[in-house]
Amino acid sequence: MSWNTDLDRFGDGVHVPAVRVHQLLGLALLTLAAASPAAETELSVVQVINFGQQPAWDAPWRFETVQRGSGSGFVIKGKRIMTNAHVVSWARQIIVRRYQDPRPYLAEVEFIAHDCDLAVLRIKDERFFEEIEPLEFGGLPKVRSTVVTYGYPAGGEEISYTRGVVSRIERQPYSHTGIRHFLACQTDAAINPGNSGGPVVQEDRVVGVAFQGMQGLENAGFFIPPPIIQHFLKDIEDGRYDGFPRVGIQLAGTQSPAYRSWLKLPDNGTGARVDRLLPICNKSGVLLEEDVLLRIGDYPVASDATILFEGNRVSAGVAFQLAQVGDTLPIQVWRDGKEISLQLPMEACEVDRAAGFQYDVLPRYFVHGGLVFTPLSLDFLRAAGIDAADPGQGELIYELRMRPTDDPRNARPEPVVLATVLPHEINANWSVRGRAMVDRINGVRIEKLEDVVRAFEQNRSDFDVVEFVPHHAVETLPRAKLAGANTEILSNYGIPSDRRL
Q1: Catalytic-labelled residue, pool 44, 86, 160, 176
Q2: Does the global pTM surpass 0.85?
Q3: Greater model confidence, 380 or 155
Q4: 431 flagged as catalytic
Q5: Catalytic residue list contains 196
Q6: From the centroid of its chain, how far is CA 485?
Q7: Which listed residue (196, 303, 315, 377) is catalytic?
């Protein structure tokens, strides 16, 4: 369609002033824009503002100051808003703003999935949804296809659009917890802070939720693809979020012809060996070390421990994550020179939660004679300014993340650290002032925080003796003055209770 705005005639034989022509043309163009799919999409994209407050993991009785953060979201069926979990984590108040609407609306989290970084919000005022259509979901986009991201990136209050190409689809680490890997799509469409939670659209359907970038990569952002989104939405249909199942195995490739011959495996490029059963999940004795995994559900497992998923070669772990917790997944393994079929229960597993960033749970602690004890966690290390790459703190990193798999017999279910020492005359002679892992207290090996409480409260000698690792430093407290010192320390430092267990 073309318009000649120099004409003073509009239509056949109808005289219209030139100014009026421009007005009518503008109205026509606005009408066309309003009717376009892109315009309909942007009406359903919202700005999400979170006033959040995190606990202070290195001083676990208190909270940090309230911080304002912003992200994006979009309306889905059921008068809900989808966004990222990290956009609304630790929320004290959530405000949502509609496209070009100055009015703020209060929202609350209905469901949140920290493992896959998704959340669903409810708006308290249903007038919010007037004249807004929910967005529909599409399928997994193809590599090299074009997508458009919608959102409210930092630095502006207006909606932003970026176009890009899907460049890669594979299993990626999700940075929200730092310890979970799921299917993700990479694109060169700009995904900046504030874009998080916004829809990634292709042919008027949502094919992803923007959620993170990657340090060191230019023109690369990532979005959560439909299989992960649909898994989350199906999970919450019963009113509860169970999470993604975990199997707890390490797979090794079987590409070597000699090795396959030794295993009596056919030379067909199929099968990955169960190299290790990790002590993080109950596998109900179904899988054994040295089993060769041939098929997971509908997906053959290749000799490099991958599957072909909708045209993409991805980690075999994706096949397990397509199942829901509570399902029984059919698998085929090669064992003792023959193929057998098994049924593997799908279970959630969170025993390694402290190794990643935690949410919706306050840090546990115990204060005794000014000594502040708390479980070792990634949140504590971050709050204490400890870099995981710092060789001087290697023991703490090893205890938290590696010993459970490298040396499970000596791993502690919940390693405990001395977070800090609150200065008082009773501990004035201490040289260890914090950031040290506790080995024993009064001869009791400390496996979890409750052991700390028990070791102190059951001691009847004149001194409390605390031993630390790795250098076996030993410190003591005189018990005769402890009762008065504890009361005074809690009062001086504004600590409401000596424990949160």
Answers
A1: 86
A2: yes
A3: 380
A4: no
A5: yes
A6: 41
A7: 196
